[in-house]
Amino acid sequence: MTKQVAHPMVKLQRQVQSLVESKLLKPTDSIWKIALLYGDEWSYWKNELLEFGFSMQDPVQEIIVVDEWDDE
Length: 72
Prior knowledge:
Blueprint: H1 8-21, H2 34-38, H3 42-51, H4 61-64
Protein name: DUF4327 family protein
Pfam families: DUF4327 (PF14217)
InterPro entries: DUF4327 (IPR025477)
């Protein structure tokens, strides 16, 4: 039985979902607002998001609605 490892973006997606559910972020807030919460880790996540075609002005709900993160 093989265990599948979740894509690193799934971790970010779950954290963003949690921030929205706890009302720290609104679904319509821009992605750049995540930087205020991630501090030193933000440069890594920003690069990952840019590679997936997100802009920092996109709403955070765009991260939440992704069904599958694919590197291809």
